[in-house]
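Hi Y.,

Following your request, here is the sequence exactly as I used it, all 421 residues.
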Amino acid sequence: MLDIRFIRENAEAVKAAMKNRKADVDVDAVLALDARRREMVSEAEGLKAERNKISKNIGKIIQEGGDAEAIKAQVREMGDQISAFDEELREVEAQLKLNLLYIPNLPSDTTPIGESEDDNPVIRSWGEKTELGFEPKPHWELGADLGLFDLERGAKLSGSGFPLFTGKGAKLERALIQFMLDLHTEEHGYVEVATPFMCNEQTMTGTGQLPKFAEDMYTVPIDGLYLIPTAEVPVTNMYANEILDQELPIFHTAYTPCFRREAGSAGKDTRGLLRVHQFDKVEMVKFTTPETSEAEHEMLTANAEAVLQKLGLHYQVIELCTADIGFSASKCYDIELWAPAQDKWLEVSSCSNFKDYQARRANIRYRDENGKPQFVHTLNGSGVALPRLVIAIMENYQNEDGSIDLPEAIWPYMGGLKKLD
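Below is the corresponding structure, written out as tokens. Let me know if you'd prefer a different format.
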């Protein structure tokens, strides 16, 4: 959430940022609500001060034998006015808060300005495209032939977009999750947490999923809970409404399934495992000071890249431009894997610096060197997401006979299995 004082003092800069983001935000309407709120607070305080002043005279009038009924009536009338003022003020404040929740974060000064995803610059790449020497099979054919997943039975259970991994496919998913968790905890300094897979409305609001993206969420209406779209939600909100008493930065990693309706993506990349409503992911979350968040963002991205390097997969890192960056992010890198049978790049990680945007929404603070509470900076990144990682392994490591070699890094997690056949 943006600070209303910042918006008030930097209105033109905020308008320019929203324009660069292609965000439909009426900054003037927000400022008008803020002006009305401040005006009402001033009027209410003046009215309360006047009532208190008059009330103090009632006792004196009674002591002097005077008639205080008229003054008492005046005080009651003023009380009614104040109550009406307070009710209207609560309504204005609630509307202002709601409007603020719909305003996305300001892009970083270093975020490239662009018109669409076509303007996302490639920052770097690692490895080379796989030269298979034969026509590669798409992952859905490989998976069906080897019995790694059963999309038809998954759809029977829950509908399309809910894959059912079977046999060695299920073992591969589990192995990759364990491999990534061990890497992040043992080599990158993250502390693992195991979170709930459902969160309440306040928690979903804290990281920016609500209210803006309500239609993309799976809900449990009876209990008012939401299935999490990413572990970022519960991990970040672990410290909601707290002043952290531990030294920053704090690193956490977590495995969770992720649930996304993706209401606006009908018809996009629906073959196989390309776009699903439930998928597994290992997440990395950082809590830092403003002074270190940019450096920690670069390291976070490097931690995600390390996963892919150890698996020997060709990838590229792109920086999202202002028109493509996520709602809560100020700066974001996407990591994309090459899938030869698709002949395209597949996103497997988004590494974002939210600065103090989420911390303001969730009220997460720390004490600076002077002991004054300040908002932390939050960061998160996929470290990394499945099943697109599985797609890349299957398509890059396939053999002409339809078998799939496994990256050496996960042999120990597959019980020594080196090939899927």
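DSSP finds twelve helices and 16 strands in the chain.

Thanks again,
Q.
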